[in-house]
Design brief:
This protein is an all-alpha fold and 152 residues long. It has one domain (24-34, 42-151). The chain is built from seven helices and no strands. It has helices at 3-10, 22-36, 46-66, 79-88, 96-112, 117-120, 125-151. Helix 1 (3-10) packs across helix 3. The mean pLDDT is 93.
Length: 152
């Protein structure tokens, strides 16, 4: 019975079931949800960070339930992309330009996994699934906020 809620959450409420590039679809769905939320100005409210933390914790649980020893991070599991892309846009204005920049940078960082991020996905279970995307999001947030502070 726990499998169905875990599957719904892990797949980002179905966004990870997209047949082509499910991680990209999941990231886009997460940003659309973020944009629709009543967050004023920038992603720096307490509620925003509570949302990231709560989804991270429930993502640990759902990724652990959906993954198998043979495939600990199935492609349909995109709740980690939700957390990662939200972390990327933290402290940025909620304009389409910054959201698009966050989306694109997060996808590049999530795929390339630089700065030791790849090592995090080797951690066993849900932590490995969730941590590498959170780390990619934090790196993305640092890069984009530095650009914003220097040039804008």
């Amino acid at each position: 019975m726990k499998r169905i809620p875990a599957e719904i959450i892990a797949t980002g409420f179905g966004s990870g079931l997209w047949p082509i590039a499910p991680a990209t679809a999941g990231s886009a769905a997460a940003l659309l949800l973020y944009w629709a939320l009543p967050i004023n100005g920038t992603g720096n409210s307490v509620g925003f960070f509570v949302m990231i933390a709560a989804v991270f914790v429930i993502g640990l649980w759902s990724a652990e339930r959906v993954g198998t020893p043979a495939d600990p991070d199935p492609k349909r599991v995109v709740i980690d992309e939700w957390v990662g892309v939200w972390a990327t846009v933290a402290f940025l204005p909620t304009t389409w330009a910054w959201l698009l920049a966050g989306f694109l940078l997060f996808r590049v960082l999530d795929i390339a996994k630089p700065f030791g991020i790849r090592q995090l996905e080797k951690i066993h279970g849900g932590f490995g699934v969730m941590l590498d995307d959170l780390a990619a999001g934090i790196v993305g947030a640092i890069i984009l906020n530095a650009i914003r502070l220097i040039f804008f």
